[in-house]
Specification:
It comes from Cyanomargarita calcarea GSE-NOS-MK-12-04C. Keywords: Repeat, Transferase. InterPro entries: Rhodanese-like_dom, Rhodanese-like_dom_sf, Thiosulphate_STrfase_CS, TST/MPST-like. The chain is 29% helix and 13% strand. It has ten helices and ten strands. The protein is globular and about 50 Å long.
Length: 272
């Protein structure tokens, strides 16, 4: 499915490694070990890639409310994006991970929320890149100064009040992106309370890709969303606003351009 403007293949990226208008971002991370992403990046990464960390770069400080991964301060992330060579509305950012797009999609969504549409995820992630025997390195690239100015798109986002007031309306679909057993409340490995927001339907984020991290083909994606893609409003959440972005990417790929993220997600919902 690499023929979409929001998805690139390893072959395409290899051919554009030296393109000054392409910035590669390694988003590898582990919820079980917060240091793992930085460690594996230092060991080996795609040449020219810089690392952005889910906790330190792609999220803000955790408070009483707002969930486990609040959205980052726009100016702080903009400064970091400028320092790695991202010019607003110009530079193509290619994000990758090795977690079936979980963390790469977070950066994909954030950049678009910041008004920057020039962003794509790497099909198959770092594992696919390695399997294709493309080069890897441990060299950290020099800073590339650019100017990134965020232009926030508030229509892409909803908070708890909006979800509470709109979730039961007939024209609104509320999507829980977590695995089925967490949605049902059979298992809850992270948050203090198990279950889901009343009225939510379950579309697990892992169903967007195959086990190797490649997006399912377009007909399968369309079939998956068939029953809800004509809804007037689609609100998407997960545990903390990260893996929901994989579903938001999938919806974008089937032509649904107005789905919104409940960024605080379940971890914010249960904090009240």
């Amino acid at each position: 499915m690499s023929n979409n403007s929001f998805v690139v293949s390893s072959e395409w990226l290899f051919q554009h490694l030296d393109d000054p208008e392409v910035v590669i971002v390694d988003c590898r991370f582990s919820l079980a070990d917060a240091q793992l992403g930085k460690h594996v990046y230092k060991t080996s990464h795609i040449p020219g890639a810089t690392h952005l960390d889910l906790n330190q770069d792609l999220s803000g400080p955790v408070g009483k409310h707002g969930g486990r991964h609040p959205l980052p301060n726009p100016d702080e992330l903009a400064t970091k994006l400028s320092a790695i060579g991202v010019n607003s509305q110009k530079t193509l950012v290619v994000a990758y991970d090795n977690s079936r797009l979980a963390f790469a999609s977070r950066l994909w969504w954030l950049l678009r929320y910041f008004g920057h549409e020039q962003v794509a995820v790497l099909e198959g992630g770092f594992n696919g890149w390695q399997k294709a025997k493309y080069p890897i390195t441990d060299i950290v690239p020099e800073p590339r100064m650019a100017t990134f100015i965020p232009t926030l798109q508030p229509q892409m986002l909803v908070d708890r009040e909006v979800v509470k007031n709109r979730k039961d309306l007939s024209e609104v679909v509320l999507i829980d992106s977590r695995e089925g057993d967490r949605y049902r409340g059979d298992r809850e490995p992270i948050d203090k309370i198990a279950g889901h927001i009343p009225g939510a339907v379950n579309y697990p984020w892992l169903e967007v890709t195959d086990i190797k991290g490649y997006l399912l083909e377009q007909p399968q994606q369309h079939k998956r969303w068939e029953s809800i893609k004509t809804a007037e409003e689609i609100l998407v959440y997960c545990g903390s606003g990260v893996t929901a972005c994989v579903n938001l990417l999938a919806l974008e790929l089937v032509g649904v351009h107005t789905a919104k993220l409940y960024a605080g997600s379940w971890s914010d919902w249960i904090s009240y």
